[in-house]
Amino acid sequence: MMLIGMFDSPFVRRVAISMKLFNIPFEHANWSVGKDFAQIRKYNPLGRVPTLVLDDGATLIESAAILDYLDELAGPDRALLPRAGARRRAALKLMAIAIGAAEKGVLMVYERVFRAEPMRSETWLNRCQTQVHGALLELDTHCAQLAAGEWLVGEHMTQADITASCVFTFLCDALPLTIESAPYPNLRILVARCEALPEFRSVKAEWFPPGENA
Q: Which value, in Å, is the radius of gyration of the alpha carbons in the chain?
């Protein structure tokens, strides 16, 4: 398999970490949606990442669809997203909150990188920032309720932990001034626990603003 996309993306990174945890080998195409846009479009008409090219040449796009496929490959006993019930609903909710924060963070980056300062909408940036902080506060509050050694939805790591960690790390790298304004101590403990694992460390990359790799 070939995973297309740079590891500074939380969406690409959560796929890579999942593949590492499943011991699924893959080739990494470290392509930028800026300078490698045309190359990516050969596999994904949207030119977006992550894109996963399967061994038979078929492609999967969007991280949620790719993760669902990986869980299917791994089987129900190893799947990173609970298969049913309250734990699945809780994991999906937490993942949606984290992904929402990542998407708003990306919009903030784009607004600052691609618009000259006189053209920027501070109203829009403030709204996105409010949404990012709201999402992170919700995750931090959830983490505060966990017992020692617990993960977000139980005694085992799930995709909720992976996603929350990848998103928070991305936001700290891409929007350091925004994130440093609020500590989120409980979320930081979870993220540090995840980021210390070899599967996370092996796919950590320095973050580059999109304008620098375009």
A: 17
Element (H, E) at 165: helix 159-174
CATH of the domain spanning 2-79: 3.40.30.10
In the CATH scheme, what architecture does the domain 85-201 have?
Answer: Up-down Bundle (1.20)
DSSP label of 183:
-
Closest CA to 166 of 4, 6, 17: 17
pLDDT at 211: 55
Domain boundaries, the chain: 2-79, 85-201
Q: Which residues contact 42 (CB under 8 A, 6 or more apart)?
A: none
List the Cα angle 135/193/142 in 5-degree steps. Answer: 35
* pLDDT tens, residue by residue, 43-56: 999 999 999 999 99
Expressed in percent and rounded to 5, the helix, strand and coil fractions of the chain are 60, 5, 35
Q: Count the alpha carbons within 13 Å of 169 in the hemisphere toward its beta carbon.
A: 29
Partnered with residue 4 across adjacent β-strands are: 29, 51
pLDDT, one tens digit per residue, over 147-171 is: 888 999 989 999 999 999 999 999 9
The phi and psi torsions of 122 (rounded to 5 degrees) equal -65, -30
Global pTM reads 0.94
